[in-house]
Amino acid sequence: MTNESAVLPSLSGGLYAFFFDVDGTLAAIKPRPDEVSIPENVRQMLQSLSTLSQGALALVSGRPVKELDVLISPLHVPLAGVHGAERRDVKGELHCTALPAAVTKELGDILADSIAGWPGTQVEIKGMAFALHYRQAMQYEAQVLQLAQSMVERFPELALQPGKCVVELKPQGIDKGAAIKAFMREAPFTGRIPVFIGDDLTDEAGFLVVNAMQGISVKVGDGPSHARYRLKGVNDVYAWLEQLILQLDQDKTTSVRSKGYESLSGRI
Q1: Which range is most confident: 156-165, 228-237, 255-264?
Q2: Closest CA to 19 of 186, 220, 239, 197
Q3: What is the pTM of this model?
Q4: Any idea which residues carry the catalytic annotation?
């Protein structure tokens, strides 16, 4: 864990690339994943920030890309879904890492049969990954974690990813840090300073990558983290976004006026 500060640095005067987790960061956590939404004004702020950063803004989430598109509609930005197993670049090209079809089917059948006797638990099928939710059945936490661990031992193609009241099974070598690295190798992200905001264990790989790039990593909420800065909750993310957009917009206006004066001075 790094030394962290509750006071985020000013982003005035620099070129930044922005990466956001969704659940617990841009949207409040709900009992069920399908109950989550991103407020309209927040989607508008994301659009403004994307414009101000020349498109260097992406969402990096455990949700599939199709779900992310629904959550942020009509906004259309680069996305990394299923912790990076799906990644849509700025050109709209989709890059996917998939499990073998036989593994996907067998794993899905085993998980469905196993949790059938644990009321309140849920299997979320993401195509190339599976999430086992137990927020509504905390009494089964140990059983769910043991099941997930046994699947990783049985299928070497899998990696285990714990989260808040959820544990996910995903392809090996996939995480949010790798997704951010991939974006940072492409325009318009390349050459910029990365800023990543997230709230969960799944975001720690992203924080480490951003720290290594001398970027700005921000943890939302309590708990140990590799992030260098801290925001208390989702509403604090919204307030920070609003202030950031005002600052960047002011910087843009000042820059335009300055260039105008320089041009006038040159003509004189």
Answers
A1: 228-237
A2: 197
A3: 0.84
A4: 21
